Amino acid sequence: MKHKIYHIVATDEKNGIGKNGKLPWHLPGDLKFFQRTTTETQNLDKMNMVIMGRTTWESIPEKHRPLRGRVNVVLSRNPDYKAQGAVVFGSLEDAITSADENIETIYIIGGASIYKNSIDNANLTGLYITKIHKTFDCDAFYPNIPSYFSTITQLGNGEDENISYEFLLFER
Known about the structure:
Blueprint: E1 4-11, E2 16-18, H1 28-39, E3 47-53, H2 54-59, E4 70-75, E5 87-89, H3 92-97, E6 103-108, H4 112-118, E7 124-132, E8 140-141, E9 151-160, E10 163-171
């Protein structure tokens, strides 16, 4: 079964996505967009899957783990790693292969190494990118967007605490 697979990420003007394992900004409008996009399905009998690295999982406050209404998958090289409420896989390929007919869409939600290692995946359908119109002090970055993601749709925009941003969808 072939699923649509997307990256979903917020980046600053220099493709920064994080600092010390955390988001360097607090944008409630972006968090709502993320939740709605990764939770809503066309078929109400299905759920979406969110795939993340261990560091991203651990950066989510415990009271919000697992992300509700989605199948949570954590990637870890440690075969003994446990993530309560999530399924753990050793590779992105294994995680994607595990998606059955009950999964509608797969969202890769970070972090930097997971994005970098999957940006050139031939099965990647598109990229949901919240482009933040400001630069932050970051130590983790999103990779450059390949030129074959040439169709860009603006899905909306927002502003929180004088920080403006726009929601973009890049497709092949």
